[in-house]
Amino acid sequence: MKKRSAFTLIEVMVAVAVLGLSAAGSLRLLTMSVRALEEVRYERRNLSLARALWLAAVSDSLDERGREKEYSWETKRFTFERQEEVPEGFYCRQVELIQGDPMSRPSGSNAHAFIFYVPDMKEKKERTK
Q: Residue 39 in 3-state DSSP?
């Protein structure tokens, strides 16, 4: 009987197929992790700027509209309609943090908006007097 010292064509084809499937899976995982990392970076930037805007709003030094780097923000008065537990005359300011130029986005599109609420300190000071 003759000894065989090489792989057969079928063995090589199976090995190449397994290698190709593992490479495709690795590339898919790589793209998913890059996308997840970008989302985390985006949320971290939003949170950092939102904290700065929160502090400015609490200290009553936040303008109604503003821009910083690639972000802009708009504030508007928010009332608590249909909520019985909220004291009468209590208002908040809704702060909408928008990535990019707000004029370039379609109206009503909040695809890249981050919204948070801040107690209206002017109203609070007037109520306590």
A: helix
Distances (CA, A) of 58 to 16, 63, 80, 110, 117: 62, 12, 19, 24, 11
Cα–Cα distance measured from residue 94 to residue 113, given in angstroms and rounded to the nearest whole number: 12
Residues 6+ apart with CB under 8 A from 105: 98, 111, 112
Q: Which two tokens stand for residue 86?
A: 């909220």
Contact in structure between 95 and 73 (CB atoms under 8 Å): yes
pLDDT digits (tens, 9 = 90+) for 13-25: 999 999 999 999 9
Please, which residues have CB within 8 angstroms of residue 2's CB and are 6 or more apart in sequence? none
Phi, psi for 97 (deg, rounded to 5): -95, 120
Q: Is the pTM of this model over 0.85?
A: no
- How far apart are the C-alpha atoms of 70 and 53, rounded to whole Å? 15
